[in-house]
Amino acid sequence: MKRQEQVDDSRERIERGLLVSAGRTTYSRVSNTQIATAAGVSRMTFYRHFENKRDVLISLLERLSFDIHLESNEDPADASVDLATLLYRRFEMLQANRTLQLLLTDSEAREVFREFRWHRSYKMFPEGNDSRGSYRRAFVFAGLDAMVLRWIETGFQESVDEMVELALPFVVAIQRS
After folding, report:
1. Is 169 in contact with 176 (CB distance < 8 Å)?
2. 76-to-26, 66, 111 alpha-carbon distances in Å
3. In the chain, which ranges are continuous DSSP H helix?
4. Cα angle: 117, vertex 21, 118; to 5 degrees
5. CA distance 6 to 149
6. I need a surface site. Which of 17, 105, 129, 135 has the fewest CB within 10 A?
7. Contact, 137 vs 128, CB < 8 A?
8. What are the C-alpha distances in Å from 163 to residues 68, 89, 97, 112?
9. Long-range CB contacts (< 8 A, 24+ apart) of 142-146?
10. What pLDDT does residue 84 have?
11. Cβ atoms 164, 91 nearer than 8 A
12. Beta-carbon neighbour count of residue 58 at 10 Å?
């Protein structure tokens, strides 16, 4: 196995180790050692790739975000990706992944999610460097967070299509304002 393949494999194993560990307890209670053990790697290997569990979660989110775009061979850096498609893929992924649901209900993990999305949101709101764009982004993400948490709490009573139908007008209206 080439060196880069080994690095990628170790990083993915550690990301899966985070998911396994967070599935057994809350993200807030997971330690770096627990992640390494679940991943089948040494602590040294863990620290060679990541500083802490926050960095592992961000790496996992980067990969999941990249994967959502690649489902239809879109460039992840392309800001013109259809919002309805992105929302659909996001809701579908959340509904299908119990560990992500658990992560989103953990306040410490939710803060990492918010920070991650905030930095990536410049693609959705390219003019977001000014204060108006910043407020619009904050409003959209607070609203989407609240919707997702409520959806999880109610046991996914609405379908993915219904969630997109509820969220899309809200996101489009804010984006256009």
Report:
1. no
2. 30, 6, 23
3. 3-24, 32-39, 43-49, 53-70, 83-96, 98-104, 107-120, 131-153, 160-176
4. 5
5. 36
6. 129
7. yes
8. 17, 11, 16, 23
9. 143/167, 143/170, 144/171, 145/110, 145/113, 145/114
10. 87
11. yes
12. 16
For the chain, give every domain's residue range: 82-176
State how far the Cα of 109 lies from the Cα of 152, in Å rounded to an integer. 15
- Write down the pLDDT at residue 127: 58
Sign of CA dihedral 115, 102, 37, 108: positive
Q: Is the pLDDT of residue 26 over 80?
A: yes
Which residue matches tokens 């061979």? 73
Q: How far is CA 157 from the centre of its chain?
A: 22
pLDDT at 81 over 70: no
Token pair 């196995």: residue: 1
Record the tokens describing residue 67, joined without a space: 């994967």
Tens-digit pLDDT profile for residues 84-138: 888 898 899 889 988 888 888 899 999 998 888 887 776 666 655 667 777 877 8
